[in-house]
């Protein structure tokens, strides 16, 4: 039988059936051959295929050309339009829309901005988006894989068969896209990719997936497109006016999976956390909740710091709408929400970003640049504009879509230095021969600039452990553009001091004072973070020396020392009630400890410290400026006593005095900033906190001094292992 001119060539039919056709959109669907329209469809399992228009007009029965499910036929039709098929076989019949009768969803302006690297709405364009297109409900999928020979979207809807939904390649950008009719909310999918060498890669999760399966499953999920109804408008309006450097910031750092668990040991939902965690943190007087990464991650012991789904709130606690409800509840309670964000590295799980299209796409191909020896992970290629766009868009996505108040950027030091954790010969110098990662520096400047420009009132925090200059200085002033930087030096030095027996502390006095030397070179957050209470480091309580009474007294004195010191405050969950055991992500905190008075006393102290910090402007309004702090006594090594004054324009000063030995000191004379009566606002030795209840009940009288820098002096009783806050009280 003579083959007609409109019929497809056999080799092209075989290419479709074998999933190797180079241009499925130029071959499948409705094609014009000369003056004739031809329909070609690949519908495995079908034995008969009838074509219809969307309004039900029958176009004809297609002829099977290949037993694998390829059909073809001439149709009388006047224009290109979506086509619906009625498929039949021996067991039944079903309807199927033809994805190859739909045009592209992305447009030339997308190509332009993507190609330029300036597209700031990629999360609206890439990934899986349920939508109506050409009058048909379905889902649009798009993914960047420029070096692939073929990319298909696969899932239960097509038996995970990559031959059935190959995507259209946009050659200018390397993005592949397809609109698949009918699919919608809850569709499970991955991408099947044939690399440039023709090798079929392991199935890949969607880099832009906004919802993911619960581990150990690894597929992406099409999310519900229904817009979330926020109730935090007033909160956001007020937030936009704040200067956080001069605003109280006391942060409760929390790992959602182990703060509390359900009675059966399973994870709490976002809604349960909104009902329990939010009021707890608000009642404790904190201003913010900082979440260890809740971006989707396959391995629980990574704590989220090895994320795969950078756009997906983890399914451990529910769906994206549930996370939005959690943030909304926090804002209703006056709490900000900060997310730990991880652009420094990503895991090499085969379903993730590594070797995504068969090449080193997101990472460097050279392991000296693209592999992180500390974590056995890959490093983003910050010199590639598409990778930078992926990450910048991700930061903006969390700030916009979930109304987050800030991002704490993890492991910034590892991004800044090309030789981070590497020996000589194991790293590649920059173009000037130095060890600075110029491309990462530019990325950080850009993401910080865009965040502050587009989302006033939000802030970016750097976990940066070196002396890189200007981390929290504006980009226009030559800085990296962060709002704040974690003060890792304060944390390490003061914990070293506090872990020593009191008799030895006089020889290490500078560990407690050194942070004041550089304390205003950056806008600092003082952290006592999760990293300090794991992996054999012991809980904060167990770091303290002495018997049990002294451990608690040391911890109370230390907390008040930190809350009185310049800088914003951060405390990891469980330490607010003196958790005894190290933290583990695998179990809940030991909440039963609150039945013991000593533990409840620490919790009361943290609540009162937060309240004093918020209510007394001298303690927060100049946290990041040197005029807000002055030593009164900084060199009493022999007695291990520290005293300073906190100040703010137009506000009464606050005097902080710490005695870091178990020896009570009567008639200890200190200079004072003002003549008159001073009373204790905080005394960590108070009976309310399960201390020995000694102190200066009734207050102290500051008398006029005779010359010198300070106008007055007072004689105090310093309780053992204690910190006092003294506020001025008019006679």
Give structural notes.
The radius of gyration is 31 Å and the shape is elongated. The chain is α+β, with helices and mostly antiparallel strands. Helix content is 22%, strand content 26%. The model has no long low-confidence stretch (mean pLDDT 95). Strands 15-16-19-22-23-24-25-26 form an 8-stranded parallel beta barrel. Strands 27-28-29-34-31-32-33-30 form an 8-stranded antiparallel sheet. The longest helix has 19 residues.
List the helices and strands and how they pair.
Layout: H1 10-17, E1 29-33, E2 36-42, E3 48-53, E4 58-66, E5 70-75, E6 83-89, E7 92-97, H2 108-116, H3 122-125, E8 127-133, E9 136-144, E10 150-154, E11 168-170, E12 175-181, E13 188-194, E14 220-221, H4 233-239, E15 250-254, H5 256-259, H6 270-283, E16 288-291, E17 295-296, E18 309-313, H7 320-332, E19 336-341, H8 367-370, E20 371-372, E21 377-378, H9 385-401, E22 406-409, H10 412-416, H11 438-454, E23 459-462, E24 484-486, H12 488-498, H13 510-513, H14 515-518, E25 524-528, H15 540-543, H16 548-564, E26 568-572, H17 597-615, E27 629-636, E28 641-646, E29 654-659, E30 665-672, E31 676-683, E32 700-704, E33 712-718, E34 722-729
Parallel strand pairs: 15-16, 15-26, 16-19, 19-22, 22-23, 23-24, 24-25, 25-26
Antiparallel strand pairs: 1-2, 2-5, 3-4, 3-6, 4-5, 6-7, 8-9, 9-12, 10-13, 11-12, 13-14, 17-18, 20-21, 27-28, 28-29, 29-34, 30-33, 31-32, 31-34, 32-33
Helix pairs in contact: 6-7, 9-11, 16-17
Keywords: Carbohydrate metabolism, Glycogen biosynthesis, Glycogen metabolism, Glycosyltransferase, Transferase
Pathway: Glycan biosynthesis; glycogen biosynthesis
EC number: 2.4.1.18
